[in-house]
Amino acid sequence: MSIHPTAIVDKNSMIAESAEIGPYCIVREGARIGENVKLLSHVVIEGETEIGPNTTVYPFATIGLPPQDLKYRGEKTGVKIGSNNIIREYVTVHRGSVGGSGFTVIGDNNFIMAYAHIAHDCLLGNGIIMANVATLGGHIEVQDHAVFGGLVAAHQFTRVGAYAMVGGMSGIAQDIPPYTVAMGPRACLYGLNVIGLKRHGFSQETINELGKAYKILFRNKNTLKEAVKKVQEELSYTEEIKNLLEFIKNSKRGISRAAKAEAAELL
Q1: N or C terminus: which one in the chain shows less Cβ crowding within 10 Å?
Q2: CATH of region 197-266
C-alpha cells in the first residue's frame, strides 16, 4: 500500500494493499479502505467507515464524522460506501444514528461533487449525481440514477425516486416521484425526465406510457388515490409503472405535485 509520510493512519484501521493514502490524510480506528481506493490529500475518515474498491476521495472531504443530531451520544454507528464512486472536494458524509439504521449508505458509481453534504442515515443507490453544494438532510432515500442540480436542499425524511432530476437551487419538501423533473423553492413537478430516460436507454414506448401515467396522476383534478386507481385500470402494469405507483403508495411525507404552468416541452 502507498501511505504518504505525512498521513496519520490508525493501526486498527484496515487498508487494502492497492490503496493510496495521500498527504495529510487522517484515517481513524475502525475505517476499512478497499482495493484501489485513493484518498488524494487532506481527507479525514472516522468511525466505522467502509469505502469500497476503486473509489476516489478528493482533498478536504470528511467521511464518517458524528451526525449533526442533538440526540447523538457517541454511539457506534458508521458509513458504508460502495465501489467506483467519485467524492469531490469538501464533501461531508456523516455517520448514521441509533434513531435511524445506524449507517449512512452510498452505493456504487456515484458522482458527488464539491461541497455536497450527505447527512446521517441517508440511503443512496447507484449512479447518482449530486452537483456542487447539493445538501441532503438526515434519513433521506435517493434511488438509482437520480440527479441533483447545484444548491439543492432536501428536507429530512424525503425521498427522491429513480431517474428523477431536481433542478438547481430547489428545495425538496416532499417526495419526488421516479422518472420526473422537479424544481423550485418548494419543488414542484415539471413533467417527465425525458432526456434522462432516453440517455439511459428507455424505449419510446415506455416513455409514452410513463407520460400517460404522469398526466393521470398529476394533471387531472382527481385525488392522488383516485388517480393511482385509474392508472392501474387504464395502463399496462409495466415494471416502470409499478415502480412509480409503489413509490407513491409508500410515501410518508406526501408527493410533490405538478406546477401550475408546466413547460410544454417537458410534458
Answers
A1: N
A2: 1.20.1180.10
